[in-house]
Design goal:
This protein is an alpha/beta fold. About 35% of the residues lie in helices and about 20% in strands. Strand 4 and strand 5 form a beta hairpin. It is globular, with a radius of gyration of 25 Å.
């Protein structure tokens, strides 16, 4: 009898929590919003910007600095009001800062970020010239259209329009544009942050790239997800190295250097990092409750009981598993240069993305413990490039609420959700000069679209570019 009563009480609590979350008032805007169409001139400017071959390499001597130096002239020639009205500071060819003076100097400033460098392109595999910038069938083509020349020009187009209309923000707004994000941002973001620290400038909140409006990426709901990155994984490349006696492969020892590395990688893959439901993931699930089936809503509303079930569900897919654990992926393996020669040295590079709550030093110690082989050294490939996760930003701050209300206004069909960014962005360098970093570019993308970022046939629809400009225009009006 007592067990039955307890079961009834438990069921009542579970159902009550679920109904309370599902009946929470919707934050989506009821206001009718008419987007401003993107002008032909704006499309032409974007096309010209894509034609700049601002490719970066880890070896800076390979960078075409002539192309990079064209960026300053492009800003001044195409955005005359921004160049005249906003204070432009060029720190170097990889670092530009615009300052838009606000009406209230007592308020902390806000920062919008983007980068203009792009990753290299392969000679084959594209259906069009990677730097054509052509407009075909409602799309603008070329490297950088998705990452992130789109948001950079969207920011400038919005500011130019608002300045022309006589608008001045209440708080000061900064734009920080880096030119080496794809190679760790050492001359761009790092130098910009040093400048802000020297000037004793701290920000109320910062907006960078990192998340998008995801369409048809989650089977739990058919609605698009407007994902605002409130946290970001850490990053490290870990090198495994083993040595052996060189010689003829016909007389191998019990374990070759390559075999030792293979065994070490096997041990890592069979001992993945534990699954954790971080604050960000819990808030993400909470945002979905009104939009999923009642059974799933019951689970998400009562994580105190059902977290093991959620962990099990998330582990099943690489996309969701990356949200709940530190990932480790062996990406480069090397050994002998000839099939019949024993390698005197073999190594593997393991790319690691570190979940909030863990540290790069703790991750390295765990990997060393899992491999547990004195004949294999396990260390950072470059400790200076390794970074800890960025702590989670508030989802109830003024900045987050402004982002959310702006998304609801310009794209009301989207579910606004806090999100863990599993990639690495320039914004991680800014964590000492703000408490709140958000990562979002308003593009409606499918899984197929995401593959074009750093891949073949990168392009953006004019519809998405229009959404970006309208989003930044409306967001700036709130600041």
């Amino acid at each position: 009898m007592i067990l039955l009563i307890l079961l009834i009480l438990l069921t009542g609590v579970l159902v009550f929590n679920t109904i309370a979350y599902r009946d929470a008032p919707s934050s989506n805007s009821k206001e009718t919003f008419t987007p401003s169409p993107v002008s032909k001139e704006a499309i032409n400017r974007f096309s010209q910007f894509i034609q700049l071959k601002t490719v970066t390499y880890n070896d800076y001597s390979q960078i075409d600095m002539e192309e990079h130096r064209k960026v300053e002239g492009f800003f001044k020639e195409n955005f005359s009001l921004c160049s005249k009205t906003l204070n432009l500071t060029k720190l170097n060819d990889f670092a530009y800062i615009f300052r838009w003076e606000g009406r209230d100097s007592s308020k902390k400033p806000v920062l919008f970020m983007a980068h203009f460098d792009v990753v290299p392109v392969q000679d084959e595999g594209w259906d069009f010239s990677p730097f054509s910038g052509e407009e075909i069938n409602g799309h603008i083509l070329g490297r950088g259209t998705l990452d992130t020349k789109n948001s950079l020009l969207g920011i400038l187009e919005s500011a130019e329009k608002l300045i022309e209309e006589g608008f001045t923000p209440e708080s000061t707004i900064y734009f920080a544009f880096g030119g080496d994000e794809e190679v760790m941002g050492l001359q761009g973001a790092v130098k910009i942050v040093e400048h802000f620290k020297d000037q004793d400038i701290n920000f109320d909140w910062i907006l960078d790239e990192g998340a998008i409006i995801a369409e048809n990426m989650l089977t739990m709901t058919d609605k698009p997800l407007a994902l605002i990155g409130i946290s970001e994984k850490g990053f490290a490349n870990v090198r495994l190295v083993a040595h052996g006696e060189p010689g003829h492969a016909s007389m191998p020892p019990e374990h070759t250097a390559a075999g030792l590395i293979a065994r070490a990688v096997y041990r890592l893959e069979n001992n993945p990092f534990p699954v954790k439901l971080t604050k960000t993931v819990r808030e993400f699930l909470k945002s979905l409750i009104p939009h999923v089936s009642f059974s799933l809503a019951l689970v998400f509303s009562n994580l105190w009981l059902f977290s093991p079930v959620v962990k099990l569900l998330f582990k099943k897919s690489p996309k969701t598993a990356a949200m709940v654990r530190t990932t480790q992926a062996a990406t480069i393996l090397s050994g002998s240069k000839k099939d019949n020669i024993l390698p005197d040295k073999a190594e593997a590079i393991v790319n690691v993305r570190i979940i909030p709550g863990e540290t790069k030093s703790g991750v390295l110690k765990r990997m060393q413990s899992v491999i547990k082989d004195s004949s294999v050294t396990v260390d950072f490939m470059n400790e200076n490039d390794a970074s800890n996760p960025v702590s989670e930003s508030s989802s109830i701050s003024d900045g987050y609420l402004k982002l959310k209300s702006t998304i609801n206004k310009v794209y009301p069909e989207g579910i606004v959700s806090p999100f863990l960014v599993t990639a690495t962005t320039d914004s991680r360098h800014y964590k000492d000069i703000t408490d709140n970093i958000y990562r979002f570019v308003p593009m409606v993308l499918t899984s197929a679209d995401l593959k074009k970022i750093h891949g073949f046939n990168e392009s953006i629809s004019i519809e998405n570019y229009t959404l970006i400009i309208n989003f930044f225009t409306e967001l700036m009006k709130t600041i």
